[in-house]
Every structure is written in structure tokens, then in C-alpha cells.
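INFO batch 0412 | record 1 of 1 | parsing
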Amino acid sequence: MQAITATEPSVANVRAYLTGLQNQITGALEAIEAQGEGGGRFLSDAWHKGPEERLQGEGITRIMEGGRVFERAGCGFSHVRGAQLPPSATQHRPELAGAPFEAMGVSLVFHPRNPYVPTVHMNVRMISAGHPGQEPTRWFGGGLDLTPCYGFEEDAVAFHRSCHDALAPFGADLYPRFKTWCDEYFYLKHRNEQRGVGGIFFDDFCELAPEQSFAMLRSVGDSLLQAYLPIVARRKDMAYAEREVEFQRYRRGRYVEFNLVWDRGTHFGLQSGGRTESILLSMPPHACWSYQREDAEGTPEAQLTRDFLVRRDWL
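INFO prediction complete | emitting C-alpha cells
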């Protein structure tokens, strides 16, 4: 493990980047909404957790609901401290079990109104932890992934190309490694399907020089808008009917299942005493469940499972 040194990026610098990233992303979505009547705006909710709480710190939750393009979009920044790392954060670092920690990050999920526009998820974070009397350890984590209800090869390829290009300056091995990690993380074994077309995911990352690790995190965070907004522009005005909406809600039910049952980030927030209202901003506004649903062969709904919810080399 790599201890924090004076050459590492300061907490203030990491925080300044993350809050700026939140502003940039929410501003870009509001600009899209403003292109027509009925455009949505983000509600900004600053919160604070005092010393009497199990987790201390502050953050800003931004949420848009009922927008013209985005039915629900949440983008939250948090900077918290706690007395003990939760179990979800020490699976790969057992020597830090029970250690005090500090964590900050930006997490977002956007649920579009049009079923042909995919849902996107991203988070970028830094965690620092260490037992009293020891040098603390700092690491980075995060990633982004795309979850369509209706699959388009063009969109999946372009999204993965952006992920690849964000990592390329930091090592040719990172994209294939982080893509595989994402595929494994978002694989639902009991259903034998991926959550979506994937993307990249990494955790416990400190193998580059400290400033380079932080630079990689910034590159991943900055890639979200260039990876996602062109897809939104291509799909947001496509015609759809009740059939597509019903399928969208069914697929959202699968999304809820993953977030609540399997996602380590959700578990980290809930186990550490985080703010539930902010943690669950990733939930869609409407979802439904069907028992053993099977879509007819040859339909776009069946094609999603056959061609897009599988591991593929999109590049």
C-alpha cells in the first residue's frame, strides 16, 4: 500500500475538482433541457451531518425531476468522515478494517424520459483511511457505464471509445482491465446477463504516482459528457409509444434490483451511516417487475438481451 506523502494531491484540490465537475455536468443537462418548453432545472440541496451523527461531513445533492428530456437526474457531491470503514470498503483491504476514514466523490445516475435514450451512471471518488499512529492510505475509484433499454451498436461503440480514450494516456492496459472489471461488477449471475453494455470500473487504485492517479480520475470524470451527450442528441427526439415505455419500466426494475441488492457503493453509503435521501437518488421515478418475462424472438426487446446484455469487445 502507498502512504500519503507531501507530493500527493491535497484534499482541497480533489474537493475543488469534484465540486467543479458537479457544476459542469448539471449545467450541461440544464442547457439541454432549456432547448425546448418545459425544460427541467436542478434542485440544489446542501446538507450537513454534525458530530452527533455516525458519519460527519457535508455535501450537495442536485436532483432534477419531471424534465423535458430527463425524467429524473441526480448528481451528488459528498465529503464525509467516519470512525470506522464499513465492511463493503475493506473487502480488498482487511488490514484497514475498523480504521477511521475520509471519503469524497461525485456520483450520478440519469434516467431519460425517452426509452431510446440509455440510462447512464458515473461515480469518481477518493478514500483515505488509516489506524491511529499509522500513515493513512489513499486510493481512488469510480467509473461509468451505459444501460440502454433499446440497443444501438453505434451508441455502445462510441461510449466505449470515449472510455478507452480517457484512459489511454495513463497506460494501454487500463481500458481492457477496467472494462473487464466493469463487466464482472455489473454481471448478474442469477440472470446470466449484464446490467447494460458496460463501460469501465476501478477501485482501490493507487498504482500510478499520486498526481497521475488523480489525473486519471479527472480524465474519467471529464469524459462523461463527451461520452453521453452525443447519444442523448441522437435519441431524445425518436418517436415512441406505450410499448416502449412499458419495457423501459421493466428494465428499470432490473436496475433497481442491482442498485439495492448488489451495488457496493450503495452498501457503503448505507452501512457507513450516509444520507439515505442522497444515496437513493439513483432510483428511477417509475419501475415495474414481471414474472419470468420472455419477449418474442425478432423483437427489439428480445434483441436487447441477445445482443447487448452480453460481454462484447465493443471496440
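INFO post-check: The radius of gyration is 19 Å.
INFO record closed
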